[in-house]
Each structure stands twice: as C-alpha cells, then as structure tokens.
Amino acid sequence: MTGRWVIVAADRQKRPSDFRLDRPTILGRDHCPFCPGREDLTPPEILSYRQNGGAPNSAGWDVRVVPNKFPALQVEGSLERVGDGMYDRMSGVGAHEVIIETPDHGRTLAAMSEQEIERVLWAYRERIVDLKRDVRMQYILVFKNHGAAAGATLEHSHSQLIALPLVPDFVREEVDGARRHYATKERCVFCDMIRQDLADGARIVVENADVVGLAPYASRLAFETWLLPKRHGARYEDAPRHECESLARALKSVLQRMDRALESPPYNLVVHTAPIFEDASAFYHWHVEIIPKLTPVAGFEWGTGFYINPTAPEEAAEVLRSVRL
Amino acid sequence: MTGRWVIVAADRQKRPSDFRLDRPTILGRDHCPFCPGREDLTPPEILSYRQNGGAPNSAGWDVRVVPNKFPALQVEGSLERVGDGMYDRMSGVGAHEVIIETPDHGRTLAAMSEQEIERVLWAYRERIVDLKRDVRMQYILVFKNHGAAAGATLEHSHSQLIALPLVPDFVREEVDGARRHYATKERCVFCDMIRQDLADGARIVVENADVVGLAPYASRLAFETWLLPKRHGARYEDAPRHECESLARALKSVLQRMDRALESPPYNLVVHTAPIFEDASAFYHWHVEIIPKLTPVAGFEWGTGFYINPTAPEEAAEVLRSVRL
C-alpha cells in the first residue's frame, strides 16, 4: 500500500520468550566487547584513528569502526528483486557497521571534548565516502541510540551505520517535500526555515559560526532538536572541515543542555543526508535530528503517524537555551 | 516539508522535571477515576450501556464514554488556519473521548467475554456515527494503549477516540496507496491481500466467518497483527452487526494468544477507517491493527521510518496460531 520496505533480519531472530519488556538488558563494563584490549570480540576493524599509533585490532585506538556482529544486512549477495504474488522481496544486501566513539567505557558523547566529538563525526564521513563506492547502495543511514530505552543494547558509547539498497521512507518524504517547495519557490525549504527561525529567535537552542540548533515548528516529540548547517549543502559527507568542527561544538552544547535540563535522557540521533543517486543539491539540506525519549507514548504515535506534543517548541528551546553550562 | 501536522497540547503541558523516563507511573485501583461509584471524577458521560438500568453518571453501567479530562483537542472554537511566515497553524479543534470498557478495574480486554468486547466495539461505532455530524471533523481515530510501556496512564481498561479537523499521515498514505492500486488493477489492495494470504496460509493467525487475522507480509514490528473483514467495506461504522460479532471473537482470540505466547505484552490497537469526506468506498478497506510493544527499539524506527523486524511474519503467525486456548 505505502511502498514501504521492511528488513526481516532472520539472523537476529528472537524466540517469543526473548520478548519480555521488563527493563531492557544492556551489556555493561564486565562483558563489553567495545573496550580496549578486547578487540578480538568484534569482527576485524574497518577503520581506526590512532593518535599514538598501534597495530590494527590492538588497543591504543581513539575511534574504531567494526562490522556489526549481528548485522541486519550483509554485504554478500546479489540484489535480486522477486515478486511473491502481489508482494515484493529482495535479499538483504547492505552493510551494518558500528562506530565505537571512545575507548573509555563510561564516557558519553556529551562528555567528550569537542575534538573527540569531531573525530566521531569525521569517522561518519569517511565511512559514507567509502561505502558510496558500492553501487548497489542507495542510502547510507548514520544513527545513534543512547540508553536502553532508546534501543541501545551496549552501554559503551557507539553509533551505527546502515548502508541500504533503497531509500528509506523518511528520506523519501523529506526529499519529495523539499523538491515540491523548490518547484514553487526556487528556494531550499531548510534555508527558509533557518532564516525565519533565526529572525524569530524563539525556537533557537544554539548558534555558532556555521551551525544552528533549533526546535522545529512542528516538533513531533517534546524537545526534538535539529542541527543544521547555515550554508546550503545536500550531503553530510561534502561538508567542509570547519562545518564539522562547528557541528561538534553545537552537538556537545545541545547534548549537555539536554543532560542538565532533562536528567540525562535516552535519545536517538539521526543524520539526514541526500540519497546517493539523486541530484538533490539545489533543494535538499543535510542536518542532524536529536530526539530525546522522554515518554513511552511513542508507541501510539508510531502506529498512527499522529503526534501529540505536550511541550511547545518555543518552550523547549527556552528551557534548553537557559541551561547554564 | 512533509505536510505533517502536530498537535501541541498546551493544556497537557509538562515541565522538564516531569519528563523522567524511569518506570512510567500508572494510576492504579486506589485512585482510579474509571471505577463505578467514582463517576463524579470524570466529566459527565456522553454515552453509557446499562443492561440493568440506572441514572446517567451513577454506578450500574457496563460501558461508559466520557470526555477526556485532559483533552489534546477541544470541541469549542473555530477552525481558523493562519500562516506564521512559512509555517501553518490552526486552533486545536476536535474531540477527545475515553471509552471505559468495563466496570471491573482488573479486567483486560482479552479477559472479557465476546459479548462484552462486542459492546465495546459497538460503542466505538456509536461515537463515530455521532461525531461525524460535526462537519468540522475530517477523521475519527479510535485507539487503545494497553500497559504503561504502550502509553497507558490508567490501569483500568479503556480505549480513546480523537476526532480531528484533518486526516492523519498514516491514513493519508494508506488511502493514497490503495487508490493507486485500484487505479491500475480496479481491485481493492486489502481484498487482494486477504485472498493471497488465505490461499497461502502461512501468515494467518485466526479466521472466522467474517474476519481474518494475519501477520502482514511487510510487518514493521514483531507480532504485528491485522484484523480485516473478509467482505469489502471502507468504513468501520458501516459494518453490519454480524461483522462486529466476528471482530469481537477474532480480537479476543488474538489478544489471548498474544497474552499466552508473549507473556501479556503491552500493546497499541488502532482502528483504520476511511476519511469522512472522501469517497474511498471502492478501494479502501477498514481494519484493526494490533502492535505489541516488545522491544524499546521503536524509538529509532520512529525517527527514521525504517524498520528492522527480528521475527518473520510467518513465524509470528505460527507462534500465535499454535497457542492452545
């Protein structure tokens, strides 16, 4: 009906008895496969940053990227689409990687220095650039689940990357919407948004030379915050170094503000960038969305696409803005 | 960008300190405003079923419908749409009602008799028929949050109804998709689905004279189950009595099976029906979607529109089918 694809990840198959909700289990320090000295507990590394040198897959790294041990998609296989009566299926070709953000088990992204955060953001970029060379991939999704309630299963701070042979729904909708706006106005809708919100001021959370952080006008959940580069650009991986620096600075500020104002909430962070094979350069505008998970109501919203937000974006922005760091 | 509307419910405004995630608080028996004898704790009733008589707003009812004490939308006010620069806003006109399903505080929908469930389903219908007379309303959304993790804030079994001055996203997408299918095939896509899935058998959970319960081919979450009338019909409220009886029977069976197989999971239930002012009679097909909330991963899926389902629908259907009631 909707053209939506779903990944059925049989390798991650769970038995019904695994589905108890209780308090979700999260892997702590004692058995953490992301801690230095335990490099053999993950598949061999794809990338690492090692300021002080050291051999691959040994301790001494600052940031480390490895394939997900329980991937939702696999790199091997051909991209065959077959009909199944009225339905469609294809094999689960793609990549699923983990970006281990720090060797320090207890350090959150919010607690890292701006330089450390920038290194993580740069690792996102490097992996996107590399994976784009696989012509089977149509979209590369970078995201982070922080905290068990946001879907994290490991405590040690990490992000994930999924390369997809299709364009996911939310990107499809955004790109199509931005294209429609451009078709009538010949302006980028995100640039318009930044301009109006900066002039207004009420929904701005942070601002620096290159990046603005704001609570979007039609925020779906309380304290939803977007980080956008002021300069128009469709692709995250094309952002110049100084934008990456400014993004790290703004991101740290927003995460620290959320930690103070909302008592270190679980959150999801998603990088929104243009699909690989579409020329969206005129009308799409990359950005990062941060969604703190404050109430369990999302289940209903999820099922209906219908959002009731108990906090006006102007109030959320004011609360975050007034945090003293 | 996406044309999405969000309800900012200022009356339900929460302060940042209210947003701790911890274990969500749920109102138990001692302070339950839905128990008989406490009718004065809710706004005056809109509808009640009283097999044994009794005055309105007194004990003795079997099903009771009241306005939500903390409504997301209010009946008063005019439906004025105004521009706010590039954005749009309108006043929050609508209705928000609560269907108290049983006088018995401890009784879940799954535990009720088929006759009792049918009465609840009939109350949905009566309220929809009544609210449709308000020409400002474009859609009437009936749903149920069961369990704190699914968004329920009261323990006593209840459903909710929200009458909206617009058509929510999920309905828009489904209706448009079904219309596209009809445009090329001249057949209802849901009827096609029922035909193929009944012939295949692998995704069927329950079946009776009028209703089929199945795990959809592209299930977004594990154990997602849809209940569809076999006979084509676009509107829930137009379903004849015997379909309502069959729906009650199938619903009880599915909920009992979920309770046994998945240890009484929290769940969301959503009635999908055609928008009030669209003639979708040829191509839309009302149905009920039940989504057990088994993992907290929904936060990510919610933010991306991108679903990784760890359980194949064929396996989920088999698990539910093989439960011995």
Number of strands of chain A: 14
- CATH fold-level assignment of chain A: HIT family, subunit A
Helical segment count of chain A? 6
Read across the widest sheet of chain A, the strand sequence of neighbours is: 2-3-6-8-7-12-13-11-10-9
Topology:
The structure is a homodimer of 325-residue chains.
Chain A: E1 6-8, E2 47-49, E3 63-67, E4 81-84, E5 87-90, E6 95-100, H1 114-131, E7 139-146, E8 158-164, H2 169-185, H3 189-200, E9 204-207, E10 211-214, E11 225-229, H4 241-262, E12 267-272, E13 287-292, H5 298-304, E14 307-309, H6 313-321
Antiparallel strand pairs in A: 2-3, 3-6, 4-5, 6-8, 7-8, 7-12, 9-10, 10-11, 11-13, 12-13
Helix pairs in contact in A: 1-4
What does this structure look like?
The structure is a homodimer of 325-residue chains. By secondary structure, chain A is of the alpha+beta class. Chain A has one domain (58-75, 87-321): HIT family, subunit A (2-Layer Sandwich), CATH 3.30.428.10. Helix content of chain A is 26%, strand content 21%. Chain A contains 6 helices and 14 strands. Chain A has helices spanning 114-131, 169-185, 189-200, 241-262, 298-304, 313-321, and strands spanning 6-8, 47-49, 63-67, 81-84, 87-90, 95-100, 139-146, 158-164, 204-207, 211-214, 225-229, 267-272, 287-292, 307-309. In chain A, the strands form 2 sheets. In chain A, strands 2-3-6-8-7-12-13-11-10-9 form a 10-stranded antiparallel β-sheet, with helices on both faces. A two-stranded antiparallel sheet of chain A has the order 4-5. In chain A, strand 4 (81-84) and strand 5 (87-90) form a beta hairpin. In chain A, helix 1 crosses helix 4. At the A-B interface, strand 1, strand 7, helix 2, helix 3 and strand 13 of A face strand 1, strand 7, helix 2, helix 3 and strand 13 of B. Strand 14 of chain A pairs parallel with strand 1 of chain B, so a sheet runs across the interface.
